[in-house]
Amino acid sequence: TSKNKQNINIKIIIMLSKNLEKALNAQVNAEFWSSYFYLSMSVHFADAGLSGFAKWFRVQAKEEEEHALKIMDYIVSRGNKVSLQPIAKVTQSWKSPLAAFEDTLKHEQEVTKMIHDLVVVADEEKDYATRSMLQWFVDEQVEEEDTARSLVDALKFIGNEKLGIYMLTKNSV
């Protein structure tokens, strides 16, 4: 009878719905696209001799990759399948630092909307674990938009002043 009373630890995994799995996989693709987009900006600024901006965008690219991996790990932890898709082409040049950072802000606002849409799906499906995981991304997007907006504002203030752009790129490292 003592054998029958053994405490057996069984890990029960409650899988994501197919709808949520598909939506999270789409976000993985979007995060990898974001990384590629920021790498493109990094190369653009390196070519333009603005090494501070190049390094800043390289760091952003790495963060986006980490975001994708975080979501991938979550999908796997729920017993679902990660489905990596091709990454769409990204822009490769910008007419000015301001144009690049305006694109950055616009992109971060789009990512915020995508994250909020995921939250809505998780809420509709009463998937509280996914909702909890997504809160980190909601908070992260507030920071991402604020940083991009601050750089856009600084570049608007500087205008075409080369010394100002030089100083900002040196302080972006």
Keyword list:
elongated, 173 residues, mainly alpha, 73% helix
Question: Based on CA inertia axes, which overall geometry fits?
Answer: elongated
Quantity of strands, as a count = 0
Major sheet size, sense and barrel closure: none
Mean of pLDDT: 93
Radius of gyration: 21 Å
Which structural class best describes the helix and strand composition?
A: mainly alpha
Which consecutive residue ranges, at least 5 long each, have pLDDT under 50? Answer: none
The share of residues in extended strands comes to: under 5%
Separation, N- and C-terminal Cα atoms: 67 Å
Tally of alpha and pi helices: 5
Spell out the helices and strands N to C.
HHHHH
Roughly how much helix do the residues carry, as a percent range?
Answer: over 70%
List the helices and strands and how they pair.
Elements: H1 18-47, H2 51-77, H3 97-124, H4 128-158, H5 162-171
Helix pairs in contact: 1-2, 1-3, 3-4
Structure description:
- It is a single chain.
- With 173 residues, the chain is an all-alpha fold.
- The protein has helices at 18-47, 51-77, 97-124, 128-158, 162-171.
- 73% of the residues lie in helices and 0% in strands.
- The model has no long low-confidence stretch (mean pLDDT 93).
- The chain is elongated, with a radius of gyration of 21 Å.
Q: Would you kindly provide a brief summary of this structure?
A:
The chain is mostly helical. It has helices at residues 18-47, 51-77, 97-124, 128-158, 162-171. 73% of the residues lie in helices and 0% in strands.
